[in-house]
User: Which sequence fits this backbone?
């Protein structure tokens, strides 16, 4: 299975997009190898039979498939009579080939958006079925309409709309995965850490509340979120600290003490490790309100 990855900070660049129908079922998917172009197909009615590097796919109404660049793909059976579909051909962003970065983590985070959030990749689902076909068709119609518009900013607008569309498919795919047991456990841990009245739960408290081995919980949490439990708890504490600074609810020493840090120096080190700047710099550079 050849997946298509995008950097979380760059856009897929649209080459071509359109709507096609085969009323009589006399054609089949073309035999080709597109060196620089990825392909997205969404079937409205009928069925498309296609192979990619000897892997067989059948795309039925309400389903989609991504085909990777520089991999041979070809049609199998003729299109089913009356088959209708949309397609998007797109390039990777120039000089932004996806590296072996960490996958974007689909879990609740603190309200702060940290820089490393963007040093991730998005693995688009190879294929899937949507449960809101009318909505998807409307989105694709809008993208096609923009493609047919000669506006000078059309390429940039097309890439932005396409990225938003792919993100919606990606989000739906991840939401389906959240039903698994391991995702349930991690979400329970996050809920516990975020709602606890204690500034920082101990490993024993976490294990006792969830009734599971703490070492296992730590390993699972790190694998699924990309964060250690300690790091995540520190992020939540720094989020509280930032809210206190915005409200002028104390200086560095007072906030450090209120949040249970051993001393202001350790608090400042943790704050800089999370935000990239010391708390004094953050206070001077950001708005505050009463």
Assistant:
């Amino acid at each position: 299975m050849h997946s298509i990855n995008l950097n979380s900070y760059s856009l897929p660049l649209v080459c071509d997009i359109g709507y096609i129908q085969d009323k009589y079922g006399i054609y089949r998917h073309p035999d080709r190898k597109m060196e620089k172009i990825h392909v997205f197909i969404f079937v409205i009615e009928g069925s498309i039979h296609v192979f990619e590097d000897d892997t067989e796919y059948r795309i039925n109404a309400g389903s989609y498939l991504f085909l990777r660049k520089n991999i041979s793909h070809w049609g199998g059976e003729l299109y089913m009579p009356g088959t209708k579909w949309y397609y998007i051909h797109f390039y990777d962003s120039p000089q932004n080939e996806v590296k072996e970065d960490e996958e974007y983590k689909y879990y609740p985070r603190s309200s702060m958006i940290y820089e490393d959030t963007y040093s991730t990749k998005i693995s688009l689902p190879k294929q899937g079925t949507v449960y809101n076909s009318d909505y998807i068709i409307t989105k694709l119609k809008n993208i096609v309409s923009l493609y047919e518009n000669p506006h000078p900013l059309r390429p940039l607008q097309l890439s932005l709309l396409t990225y938003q569309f792919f993100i919606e498919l990606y989000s739906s795919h991840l939401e389906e995965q959240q039903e698994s047991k391991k995702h349930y456990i991690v979400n329970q841990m996050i809920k516990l850490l975020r709602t606890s009245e204690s500034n920082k739960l101990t490993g024993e408290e976490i294990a006792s509340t969830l009734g599971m081995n703490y070492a296992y919980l730590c390993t699972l949490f790190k694998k699924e979120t990309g964060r250690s439990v300690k790091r995540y708890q520190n992020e939540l504490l720094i989020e509280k600290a930032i809210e206190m600074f915005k409200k002028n609810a104390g200086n560095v020493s007072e906030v450090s003490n209120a949040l249970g840090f051993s001393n202001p120096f350790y608090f400042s080190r943790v704050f800089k490790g999370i935000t990239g700047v010391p708390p004094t710099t953050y206070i001077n550079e950001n708005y505050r309100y009463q």
